[in-house]
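Researcher: Next entry in the queue.
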Amino acid sequence: MKHVIALDVGGTSMKAALMAEDHTLLRQERRPTPVSEGPEATVAALVDFTAHLREYGERTYGRGALAAGLAVPGFVDEATGTAVYAANIGWSDVPLRDLVAERLDGVPVAVGHDMRTGGLAEARLGAGRGLDRFLFIALGTGISAAIGIDGGFEAGAHGGAGELGHVIVRRDGRPCNCGQRGCLETVSSASAVARAWAEASGDPGASAADAADAVRRGDPRALAVWDEAVAALADGLTIGVQLIDPRALVLGGGLAESGELLFAPLRRELAARLSHRVPLPSLVPAELGDRAGCLGAGLLAWDALAGTTQPNGTP
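Model: Structure for this entry, 315 residues:
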């Protein structure tokens, strides 16, 4: 069974899989990301995880993986396979492609930005199929985006395109980890909604899902939290629409799992802000859920094996 290694590195956990040529995930595993132990420990854990998956493939399928794809957060130089910087992990200028290739005895290795990699999966296998231009947004612990254009993804001059979460939408808002105040992810991410609802409800353990449940019950405190998150998200997305004129906005991540509770008011808010634009981009949920990163990493690996393009559209 021909297969590749796919690894999606997050600040909390690393999700991995073996992917067959037909995009089936043959084996899926998850391990914690040892961020608290320092960036060196995280790099070592990542490399060890890929080696473990290769050994599993050899035992189970009689052959090792033909290539590996890595989806990692932060600024990424996809051409050199370098993890340039990631605040939530703490690493900088890590030659991940070379380190993993050495451990895997020289098989092709591709490294991509996690959002662009997830967007690649949505473009080929999910909600972005057939779209020439779309914006893929993940509403999770933070907020990030990927700009899909003609089958590729815009990386930007320094690998940082799509940082929609750090667009300032509330000038006097909460401090953000990036050093600014009032960034979109301080208001409209799943973690921001959870924090705001915890403060409003007096329950320190409250989650974004709890806030959504309270909205469905008509709790006025929850409605105020939700309305502010939706309004700020509409402000941020309006900027994205004005800049790149996407055919669709594809929303994923934990907050998007609330479905029409989020999508219905967000459509109204966007229509009010973009009344001068005809037609409006469609607003649709992502289809691949938390599998998008692994699926995209697997696609990177198959592309590397075939010598085709990276998610930013470069060879």
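Model: The chain has a mean pLDDT of 92.
Researcher: Noted, moving on.
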